[in-house]
Amino acid sequence: MAGVDVYMSFYLDRLIDIDEQKYLFALNAWFYLSWVDERAPGAVADATAAAQAPGGACNRLCNGQRAFSAVSRCCDAPLWLPSIVFRNVDEFPQGRAQPYYIDVSETGAVTWRVEVRSSYLTTLDVSAFPFDTQSLDMIATLSNYPGQGAVRVIPSATGLGLFTFGTGDDLSGWHAKDVHIFVRNPANYSSVFSSAQVARRQVSVSAPGDPVPLVPSNSPAALAARGGAPAPPRFGEGIGVVEITVSISVERLWLYFSLSAILPIVVCTSIAFLAFWVHPADLSTRLSLVVGLFLALVAVQFVLDGELPKASYVIPTRRLVIASYIALAVIAIETLVVANVVDWPRVRSNFHGQARALARRAELKRAALDLERSTRGGNAGARRTSSGAGGGSAAERGWTAAVARLTTLAQGGSGGSGAASAGLMRSPRPPFAAPAGAPPPPQSPPPMSGLAEEGGQAAASRAASKDLAPSSPPPPPFSRWPLGPSGGLAGGAARPPAGGGRRPSEAVLMEADLEAGYYAWLAWVIDMASFGVICALYSLTAVLIFVVARAQEPDLCARSGLSSDCLGQTTKHHRG
């Protein structure tokens, strides 16, 4: 048989499914193959006569019917039909015959129409989701064996519809754009395993002793292993193979996925910016808003991950989710910062108050110890006086100084007198020796040790407990003690509590209000600056994510794994 040119046409009848988790697609399509074979009319006549003879049979009816009748034509051998094998087919439906029809004209023109309904393995690149375009490839080969004429495949017509009509989308979530037929006619079968594939480590070199190697090697090591003999002919040497790729270009319905995937992410993050308009002191409201939106964002991401493949790269929607996580985290940190800025005057006051309380407690302990030592010295002076020795007046002066110091510390420098200071003042004096000629005391004093314990340690304990006890709630920041014309309390206003110390002056209160207002203004400035910066950065990041992804989307030839000039080898159909 001389060389034959086979014209191939492809019509997509219906896309059935695109499984992004299993990288599969299913379709129903029609292949039309046509060529000229001058021997075809005689071959059909001979096969039909043999089938009609007694005991004859026909394995392939020309009209695709299963039962042979008197009007049927038989297209068995010697009629030549091209043998096309799909390399990436996953499965054909079981129990369903593939309809076909073979027509042979008197001039030798042969037309072979085959309906193909099956699923195929494919690769998907979702790096531009949801604005991505995929190429669903059906890869087939046609072999030219030695002794046969060379067969060339020439692309012809393509289409996106043949027998299925109607309005609406082609497939849920997808839109079929166009169809391309790529044809590559290598010199022989060995070119299927190219040097480029070996360089990319897609295939490995065959063992040196392989009698029919797929990828032979003449490296020094391989030659030494074969005893210097050259590599044997590779598998399929001399067999010409035509590689055919039917590429169906489909476009994702980006509007649906934008509304169901991108919009919820952006809205959740945008609502978080409302936290900047809540008062900085309302920490619980602001944090609860951010945490709730974070949980909602996790739920949206969980739904998206269930619909998209687990790719080795970060798809645009996941980049947007990551940017949203970062924005929420920054807003939460900023919320804590401004809350501490507003509350800083109170925090600083509490800090200094605690420090003063600890220092005062230490002073009280030291004063109590000094009082106890003075009391013991007074007892010793009394005994020396009674025995004729001097020094009682010095001990009395030391005891008086210690009591005065402890009383001052117990009162805390305030105008009022506390319970601790009152107790100290009511404590009886120790029995120092009276001067010569003075009348004796009217009654015997209690033992000195008991007085020291009551007047010193007990007073110190009471003063320390008073100092460390929780204070009453502070007045509102803008409250004032009503002042009269002379600076006293106006009208019948109640005085401050006895334990509250001296009334703060108007200047002190004004200074406190000015400080609180300054920190509130500073928190507002931080809030507004953070709002502008975070909102601008997030918006710019969201736009750049999809602009860059759209610009980096590979073209049709790259998606199909073919050379950059593949479009020059094809015919294509565009839907109008």
Question: What can you tell me about this protein's structure?
Answer:
The protein is an alpha+beta fold and 576 residues long. It contains twelve helices and eleven strands. It has helices spanning 40-52, 195-199, 220-225, 254-272, 283-307, 316-342, 344-386, 392-411, 419-426, 448-468, 506-551, 556-559, and strands spanning 4-19, 24-36, 84-86, 89-91, 100-104, 109-121, 133-144, 151-159, 174-184, 240-252, 572-574. β1 (4-19) and β2 (24-36) form a beta hairpin. α4 runs parallel beside α6 (316-342) and α7 runs antiparallel to α10 (448-468). It is elongated. It starts with a strand and ends with a strand. Residues 187-191, 413-436, 441-460, 463-501 and 572-576 have low confidence and may be disordered.
- Kindly state the mean pLDDT as a whole number? 74
What is the H-and-E element order?
EEHEEEEEEEHHEHHHHHHHHHE
Please give the alpha-carbon distance between the first and last residues. 42 Å
Reported by name, the CATH topology of the largest domain is: Acetylcholine Binding Protein, Chain: A
Q: For the record, what is the CATH homologous superfamily label of the largest domain?
A: Neurotransmitter-gated ion-channel ligand-binding domain
What sort of overall outline do the alpha carbons produce when their principal axes are compared? elongated
User: Helical segment tally?
Assistant: 12
CATH class of the largest domain: Mainly Beta
Spans of at least 5 consecutive residues with low confidence: 187-191, 413-436, 441-460, 463-501, 572-576
Strand tally is: 11
Helix content: 40-55%
Q: Number of folding domains?
A: 3
Structural class: alpha+beta
CATH architecture verdict of the largest domain:
Distorted Sandwich
Mind summarizing the main beta sheet? 6 strands, mixed
Beta-strand residue fraction:
15-25%
- Cα radius of gyration in angstroms: 50 Å
